[in-house]
Design goal:
The structure is a homodimer of 460-residue chains.
Chain A lengths: L5 H9 L1 H12 L11 H18 L3 E5 L6 E6 L7 E7 L19 E3 L2 E3 L7 H18 L5 E7 L7 H9 L8 E4 L11 E6 L1 E10 L5 E2 H4 L6 H12 L20 H9 L4 H9 L12 H6 L3 E8 L10 E2 L2 E10 L5 H15 L5 E10 L2 E2 L5 H14 L4 E5 L4 H10 L3 E3 L15 E3 H20 L1
Parallel strand pairs in A: 3-6, 3-7, 7-17, 8-16
Antiparallel strand pairs in A: 1-2, 2-6, 4-5, 5-18, 8-15, 9-13, 9-14, 10-12, 11-13
Chain lengths: 460, 460
């Protein structure tokens, strides 16, 4: 370890408790962006971030109003001649249902077995706090930052991210930078640092099926009534078969063959991802397209999932209703060469084609985002790689991630700078599920890594 | 009209307002039997019925506690040598969701265009009130009743009816009678009186599918994770195709060919049921097995319906969850020759056979009930037929009803007496749906008909 890092280590050790208290305070704010009743909480979480940025000593930290939840923008540009890094994160969180499966309340951050449990602990408040604390440490130790920093946080990542997309495309000059850094990904294991070189895009849709003009009694009308729930089941079963093949004509045409090195990595599976998936999911066999290696299925193949079906009666007991309307939330994950709008058009066409007669079908494009492929050869990626190697004692692996971070594609397309996707989550962090957690060791190693990454960027 | 009916007509006219006020007061009690939070309301509705029975002058009116909601039992047996009629009804109601589609609140009975709108107005409080007021009128006018009367009401008709089934099978001696009368059915039109000669049975099931041990993020696991919602869609699509054919091996084997007269009635469709169905449902084409006449499909054929699918996320916005567990409520309506337990066994076996690999499936038998066929030749049916002809000016048609009234099959099987299925609901009463209503003209003609029916039974 270089000698100029000792004060950094000292500062981190001394402020360990405070760092955790600041994270806990943030996690206590239920900033669920998809639920209108939490609108004030989302704003409160944004304001908390501003307080943290002011504490670091950033020159500016402002709330930017939008049509939805506000953006947080902050900058410190007092390192002339040095590169500018744009850092992105989000302060909104997923809903918490099913609430009854949480061992401790989702907004009462609790430390157990070296982890902090709370909704947003890993996705993404914990990771954004890593950045705050890395910058705070650098500023406290050196009374300055080694490079120029811009921070842009959003509160709608879990709700489509429309406002930030609008802001980036209409205000690119304010965001001018030499590299972008997104801290919203994970590593395969705590002893296996990783950088993400590919992300899937997404389309998120709602398929609405209307049968009769009103709910009907199955005793009187069963046998002559259209049943939108049954129609939806047929549509869904025709969109994807039990072997994971998606039956949307044209969908697979543009899926690029993977790079031979990637192909080899996926097939050899040196990370034993297959076993990890089985263990993490608690199942005996993997689902999906068995003819492709698991890493290719989650990183390089389009997939289709149903997230919820509403309509009719799902309460306790028995109600013999045939609902007038039923809806399904269905999304597709897309490898980088599939463009979301094109895929939505194919999807919509197919849904209409496979829908049974006697019902009216409407397909809604809830939101979409593009995938991305990043080159490992750029200077910022090399700096991140060196920082990870320094803190974790081994060089990172380069991975594709199955999740969608539309903002990465936007940075790529609008700002034309290398995008560093470096995160400290772990595969068992229970993102979007009960008992979300963030490992404390990853939190502190994350702070060390980001501090080192920022310093190394100054040396380039 | 016979001269001895004039005082009856006078009494009904004079007490019209009071009859309606009594009905409204009962409808204001939200006796939803499937929702535990309404347990006290259900009891309250039972107590209200007891007050009405006492007002008539019945010798006894008691609440009978059960493991679930109480039964109401009442008797008047002071007509020695005359027949005894056992009258059944239910005082519980269906849930009210989707509440936003009600034009007036479901438990604020409102009169519009000659109808009373409220949950339970037609199913079944309004029809039970017809009986109360017919008996009240006879007793008020004659100071006695022409036959012996037993009344048995339940509060679990919409929740499986377990308690009354237990009571009838364990206490048949108390219910000894010469005929049973169930007032929980409808007529094809207000000018077309009807008696029901057949009812379908039912099995109500829940199919539970378990994938991973916890909810997963579709970005990280889409492509390798089992999706229970998708598995359910496949199961449902394999159980029934889009042409209404149920693919449960053995199901159709025991469906008896209809009587030639019935067949002719169904095919000729003199009631123009097809047009009525289209109009009532607001659709351009009927669904189901198009090769069978509509009346046969709803009255004589087995049908399968999905009533609700839970699991995952159905709130506002987008959540990319792959749920650990998903459940579907699925029921089958069964013509009389299909026994519910046998069909459940076939259903359960088929669900397991058609379920995709990689998930665990559990099939729960929520409740079941048998169908019934009634002979039109028995004395009580003849009396009911004559009463309807007298009040409506034309003889009734004999119909099969698609709905299930398991109690009818129980009376048939345990008490071995003719079961009269005569009700005054109309097809557009919105049973189990928003804006349930009961026509005021049917309410008062029902009172006249039941009073006449009871008198005619005395003459036999």
């Amino acid at each position: 370890m270089a000698t100029n890092e000792t004060p950094i280590e000292t500062y981190i050790t001394k402020h360990q408790e405070q760092f955790l208290e600041d994270l806990k305070a943030w996690l206590r704010i239920p900033s669920i962006s998809t639920l209108p009743e939490h609108k004030a909480d989302v704003k409160h979480a944004a304001e908390y971030a501003i307080g943290q940025l002011q504490r670091i000593g950033m020159s500016e930290a402002t709330l930017i109003p939008t049509n939805g939840h506000p953006l947080v923008y902050s900058e410190w540009l007092k390192a002339p001649g040095k590169p500018t890094l744009l850092i992105y994160g989000h302060y909104d969180v997923q809903p918490v249902d099913p609430i009854e499966l949480w061992e401790s309340a989702p907004f009462d951050p609790t430390i157990r077995n070296g982890n902090i449990y709370a909704r947003g602990s890993s996705d993404d408040k914990g990771q954004v706090m890593v950045i705050f604390k890395a910058l705070e440490t650098l500023m406290a130790v050196n009374d300055t930052l080694p490079i120029n920093i811009k921070v842009l946080l959003e509160g709608e990542e879990e709700a489509g991210g429309e406002s930030i997309a609008h802001y980036i495309t209409t205000t690119p000059e304010r965001l001018g930078c030499d590299a972008a850094f997104i801290c919203d990904t994970h590593m395969p294991a705590a002893d296996m640092p990783a950088l993400i070189t590919g992300l899937r895009g997404i389309i998120y849709t709602e398929v609405e099926v209307q049968g009769a003009t009103q709910d009907l009694h199955s005793g009187s009308y069963g046998g002559v009534a259209p049943n939108p729930l049954h129609s939806l089941a047929i549509i869904i079963s025709r969109l994807k078969d039990e072997d994971g093949h998606i039956h949307i004509p044209g969908l697979y045409d543009k899926v690029r063959k993977p790079h031979p090195q990637e192909q080899e990595f996926w097939e050899k599976d040196p990370l034993h991802i297959k076993e990890a998936y089985l263990r993490e999911m608690g199942v005996n066999q993997l689902s999906g397209e068995l003819e492709y290696p698991p890493l290719e299925r989650t990183g390089g193949r389009p997939t289709l999932e149903v997230h919820g079906i509403s309509g009719g009666f799902v309460g306790e007991g028995a109600k013999t209703v045939i609902p007038a309307v039923a809806k399904a939330k269905i999304s597709l994950r897309l490898p980088p060469d599939l463009k979301s709008q094109e895929v939505f058009t194919l999807f919509e066409k197919t849904v209409h084609e496979v829908a049974p007669a006697g019902v009216t079908v409407n397909v809604i494009n809830v939101h979409g985002g593009e995938g991305i492929i990043v080159s490992p050869d750029s200077a910022p990626i090399q700096a991140a790689s060196a920082a990870l190697a320094e803190v974790y004692g081994k060089p990172p692996v380069f991975l594709r991630e199955g999740g969608s971070i539309p903002i990465a594609a936007l940075f790529d397309a609008v700002l034309h700078v290398p995008v560093v996707l470096m995160g400290f989550g772990l595969p068992d962090d229970n993102l979007h599920a009960p008992n979300e957690k963030y490992a404390l060791s990853q939190f502190f190693n994350g702070i060390r890594t980001v501090a080192s990454f920022v310093q190394k960027l100054a040396q380039k």
